[in-house]
Amino acid sequence: MNTLEINHLSKTYSNGVKALQQINLTLENGMFGLLGPNGAGKSSLMRTIAALQLPDKGNVIFNGTDIGEQPQFIRKHLGYLPQEFGVYPKVSAVELLNHMAILKGIFNQKIRKEQIESLLVQTNLYQHRKKSVSSYSGGMKQRFGIAQALLGNPKVIIVDEPTAGLDPEERNRFHNLLSEIGEQVIVVLSTHIVEDVRDLCTKMAVMGGGKILLEGSPKELMTNLNGHIWKKEIKKETLEAHQKSFNVISSRLFAGNTQIHVYADRQPEEGFELVDAGLEEVYFSLMRGFPIGRKEGVAC
Ligand SMILES: Nc1ncnc2c1ncn2[C@@H]1O[C@H](COP(=O)(O)OP(=O)(O)OP(=O)(O)O)[C@@H](O)[C@H]1O
């Protein structure tokens, strides 16, 4: 079992932005979802875990070693799939993986070849291995990203917004790949997409303003909110009035009508029906400042 302990982590940038404020988290093997709006501090946290930047206070302990003191220790065991690779060179997938494997310190040619072939098979890219990565579709690029992140058998994998822009089939395939990997290593999945966390992660946290606002398992967090989420179908033109009168968490078009979800301890008025809370309700209730059931593992 791998463990990543994040203790009292704080970071203020030179412009005064408090990007991380007293972050405490413990991660073990499995998929950990990190949700939060733009600017919440997710990338700052991941860069610190990857030892790409130092915190002002606190530390990150990976399998017993303080990575601030020994950054090489985490780098050796880390796979990183950034949001965008930026420019893809016009070289084939197999050549690019070979180059990256050397950079990761896999110097034995036989081991390198075997590992690259097995990763190309695992990510379903073997038949496209000789094509230039720049010609790949979005989904293939993401799978290539996973293949390169898995070089050297990392114990911690960080994936940043991995499914943005993928079609449903590619997203599904990518999900299956991630969940297979996630059983033996720590996978940190940073995303805005609430469903990805609900579908894939056993543990999660929501960040906002550099803090952990909520932490727990998606299932428990949803259960805690049950009994508080009410739905009603309304006429589109009455949406604003409903927003003024009730704690509207979300509104969406449903079969031509507008359906609203409202946070309330009891039926807000006639016509509202209680519904099971989804992770979106948890997230949006939190973001809108409603007192969601905070029983389990909440940091602040
Ligand atoms: N190098 C930096 N110097 C100054 N401020 C920074 C720096 N990097 C990030 N910030 C600021 O720190 C805050 C947290 O940013 P961060 O990128 O960690 O958030 P995020 O949750 O990853 O957002 P996004 O989803 O948009 O990437 C933001 O206000 C951002 O503008």
TrEMBL record:
Residue ranges constituting the ABC transporter domain according to the UniProt record: 4-234
Keywords carried by this UniProt record: ATP-binding, Nucleotide-binding, Transport
Q: Name one Pfam family in it.
A: ABC_tran
Q: Name one GO molecular function term.
A: ATP hydrolysis activity
Record keyword Methyltransferase present: no
Superkingdom, taxonomy of origin: Bacteria
Q: Which PROSITE patterns match?
A: ABC_TRANSPORTER_1 (PS00211), ABC_TRANSPORTER_2 (PS50893)
**Matching InterPro entries:** AAA+_ATPase, ABC_transporter-like_ATP-bd, ABC_transporter-like_CS, P-loop_NTPase
Q: Which PANTHER family match?
A: ABC TRANSPORTER, ATP-BINDING PROTEIN (PTHR43335)
**What does the sequence similarity comment in the record state about its family?**
Belongs to the ABC transporter superfamily.
Q: What is this protein called?
A: ABC transporter ATP-binding protein
